[in-house]
Structure formats: structure tokens, C-alpha cells
């Protein structure tokens, strides 16, 4: 009888422990010392990447550690330009940063940004994170001294233009279009336009000054940069690629953290990817209707034009892989791995 009572008590304690909302260390206790980490990115604090991405993640880490981990957050390039954030993280000037623009150092990470690569933000995020787990973690991130906490693929990129509506493929030729670089830049060349690589915060001014005729980016990115006021036209059914919003931590810093903090960060990362990607997909249709009501021409490319466009941009895949192979990177291998993941996930 006594043995049964102790067994019952042990089961109750186990259930109570599993229901806890906090991640504890190996002893089942949270340490008394607070940990403060410095976080930096290039987007305004009002941007969805900030609110639904890194801020959501930081809040979950705080909750999971019962406030034992705190963050000092520096948005809007306060500590450095977008292109410098990987170096700032590697040098431990900051602990965690938005490493999405470090494509020169981590070119294989752009595979999910290829035109036609992802069907949606939710599915694209799952595909990309699987590739990170199987291959890119060691090949791209840890080799650069950082570890990704979460990564989300933005919705399919559309073509936004100031004065010219795209009715046929020839209408794109000669246009100066902003790209985020990498495979989208290659695709822009394929369709006869002139790519102009720049960070998203610079697009509005470039359109106003006539430096560019338009841009390629997700519908969810128009409002944060007020592009619906700067441009007149936007496609709604193109798939010109994507952009991977990634936040990474200095690997040395990560390894020095208590185990319970590491576990909290990983759990928060999984939750953030699900939350953020769902948010993005849900808002595409809503924003499309809003922009139409505000006077922007949101239109679908007709079947023939879309087919011709997709045929041209599909060539980007091999061009991108071949260019990386010439630089010593396994471009074709990462393409094959990504395609296998896509098929296994039923996309």
C-alpha cells in the first residue's frame, strides 16, 4: 500500500513538472542571476519583422525563463547597418542580430529566396528550417560563428511599379527594379530588367527620386515602408522569390548560456516561426484589399504572361547554383536537398 502511494505521488509530481510554463536547468531549478543579452536589427520597431518576429521571440524567452533572461533591443540600425550585423554578432559587439543581409558570407542560405521556391510563408518556413537542421546549420551558420534562433520566409515576392503596369513580359524589360540581391537579382536579369540591390528602408526614397522604377518584395512589406503611397501598381500572383528573416546568436555566447536558457530559446524559436509565418500568410489578402481601397492597382498577371515569366525565372535556379559552384560552394547539392524536403513535405 505504501509503495503504491509513493508511486502515485511520483506520477503527480511528474505531471506538475511537465505542465510548467518555464524551462528549468538539469536540477529542476531556475538560477537566481539574471542574464541580459543585446539584440540589434535594421527594421523599425513598428515593422512586422520586429513586432511579430524578434519581439515575440524575446517575450517568449522571458516567459519561459520566468524573467531570468532580459534583452536590450536596438532596432532601426541603431548599432550598425543591415549589412554589418553579422560581423557585429561574430565580434560579440551584440549577442543576437538580424543576419538576413549576410548573404555574401552565407550564400547557400538564399536557396529559399529563389523565384518559385516557396508556396507560402508557413510552408516555406518549414522547408527552410528543415534544411537548416539537416545541412545549413553547420555549413553556413556555425562556420560563421553564429546559430540561428529562428528564420521565416516572407510571402511570395510581387512586382511593384511606379508608372508602368505589367501586361506582358516585354513591359518588364528595361525597368530598374530594387531587389534584395542574390537569386532575385539573377532573376531580374533573366527577365530583362535592371536589378538595383538595396535594403528595404531605402526603397521609398529611391522611388521618389526616380532612382528605381519599382521593386520586388512581399505585399506584407509595402505598408511598413509606405510603398503603397510611392507606387501605383502591384502584381498579386507572381512568385519572384522570397526573403528569409533570420535572427542569429553568437555561438560562443550561446554555448556559455545555461542549458535551461538554450532550451527556452529553441522552444521560443519554434513558436515564433509558427506564429510569424501564419501572421504573414493571413495578412496578404487583407492587405491586398486595403491597398485596392486606397487606390493602388493590385492586379493578376494573365495566364500567358505569368507562364512566360515563370519559364524565364526558372532558369535562375541553375544559374544561381552554377555561380555558387564557381565560388566553391555546393550550390547544386543544396538545391537537391531543398527539392527533396519540398517533396517530402508534400509541396
Automatic annotation (TrEMBL):
<dbReference type="GO" id="GO:0055085">
    <property type="term" value="P:transmembrane transport"/>
</dbReference>
<protein>
    <submittedName>
        <fullName>Neu5Ac-binding protein</fullName>
    </submittedName>
</protein>
<feature type="signal peptide">
    <location>
        <begin position="1"/>
        <end position="22"/>
    </location>
</feature>
<dbReference type="Pfam" id="PF03480">
    <property type="entry name" value="DctP"/>
</dbReference>
<keyword id="KW-0732">Signal</keyword>
<dbReference type="InterPro" id="IPR018389">
    <property type="entry name" value="DctP_fam"/>
</dbReference>
<dbReference type="InterPro" id="IPR038404">
    <property type="entry name" value="TRAP_DctP_sf"/>
</dbReference>
Amino acid at each position: 500500500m505504501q509503495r503504491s502511494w509513493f508511486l502515485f505521488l511520483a506520477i503527480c509530481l511528474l505531471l506538475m513538472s511537465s505542465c510548467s510554463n518555464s524551462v528549468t536547468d538539469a536540477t529542476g531549478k531556475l538560477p537566481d542571476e539574471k542574464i541580459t543579452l543585446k539584440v540589434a536589427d535594421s527594421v523599425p520597431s513598428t515593422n512586422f519583422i520586429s513586432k511579430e518576429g524578434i519581439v515575440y521571440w524575446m517575450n517568449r524567452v522571458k516567459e519561459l525563463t520566468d524573467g531570468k533572461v532580459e534583452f536590450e533591443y536596438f532596432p532601426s540600425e541603431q548599432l550598425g547597418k543591415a549589412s554589418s550585423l553579422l560581423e557585429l554578432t561574430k565580434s560579440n559587439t551584440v549577442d543576437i542580430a538580424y543576419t538576413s543581409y549576410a548573404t555574401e558570407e552565407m550564400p547557400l542560405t538564399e536557396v529559399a529566396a529563389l523565384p518559385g521556391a516557396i508556396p507560402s510563408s508557413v510552408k516555406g518556413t518549414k522547408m527552410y528550417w528543415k534544411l537548416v537542421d539537416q545541412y545549413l546549420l553547420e555549413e553556413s551558420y556555425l562556420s560563421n560563428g553564429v546559430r540561428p534562433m529562428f528564420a521565416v520566409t516572407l510571402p511570395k515576392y510581387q512586382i511593384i511599379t511606379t508608372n508602368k503596369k505589367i501586361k506582358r513580359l516585354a513591359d518588364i524589360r528595361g525597368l530598374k527594379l530594387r531587389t534584395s540581391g542574390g537569386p532575385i537579382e539573377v532573376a531580374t536579369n533573366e527577365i530583362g530588367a535592371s536589378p538595383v540591390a538595396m535594403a528595404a528602408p531605402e526603397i521609398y526614397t529611391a522611388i521618389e527620386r526616380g532612382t528605381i522604377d519599382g521593386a520586388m518584395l512581399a505585399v506584407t512589406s509595402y505598408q511598413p515602408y509606405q510603398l503603397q503611397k510611392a507606387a501605383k501598381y502591384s502584381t498579386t500572383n507572381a512568385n519572384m522569390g522570397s526573403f528569409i528573416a533570420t535572427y542569429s546568436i553568437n555561438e560562443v555566447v550561446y554555448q556559455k548560456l545555461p542549458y535551461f536558457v538554450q532550451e527556452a530559446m529553441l522552444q521560443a524559436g519554434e513558436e515564433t516561426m509558427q506564429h510569424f509565418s501564419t501572421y504573414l500568410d493571413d495578412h496578404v489578402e487583407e492587405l491586398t484589399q486595403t491597398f485596392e481601397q486606397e487606390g493602388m492597382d493590385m492586379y493578376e498577371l494573365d495566364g500567358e504572361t505569368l507562364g512566360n515569366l515563370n519559364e524565364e525565372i526558372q532558369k535562375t535556379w541553375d544559374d544561381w547554383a552554377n555561380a555558387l559552384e564557381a565560388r566553391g560552394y555546393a550550390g547544386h547539392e543544396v538545391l537537391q536537398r531543398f527539392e527533396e524536403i519540398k517533396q517530402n513535405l508534400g509541396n
